Amino acid sequence: MSxxxxxxxxxxxxxxxxxxxxxxxLSNAASTIFDKADAGGAVIYLPAIVLAELYFLNEKVGRPLxxxxxxxxxxxxxxxxxxxxxxxxxxDFDLDANVPEMHDRMIAGMARWxxxxxxxxxxQITASGVVATIW
Length: 135
Prior knowledge:
About 45% of the residues lie in helices and about 15% in strands. By secondary structure, the chain is α/β, with parallel strands linked by helices.
């Protein structure tokens, strides 16, 4: 991995979904980061809760993605790192208390733990001040 690839980000659910379906709703800044990761210049962490939400979002909007195929592609790629949620991770919830929603707190907590910006347009994560956000 090049020194440039040490650039790390955490993607929230909408960011990864819009990237995967090539949606114009993905911001230019986030799109640039996904492109950089595609080229090997960055890595994007996907917390387990993001993958769970991605599954349900895909179902909600009529399954534009073959979820199993996309999951395998993400898992095998070099630019995405899938991160499990461990029981002891709940001990950090107080550190991220400014993020009111539990799933968002898990995403922000991963970004805080990695000291990585979060690719998100979520207003609560952005307003929390817990992590740097890019949109």
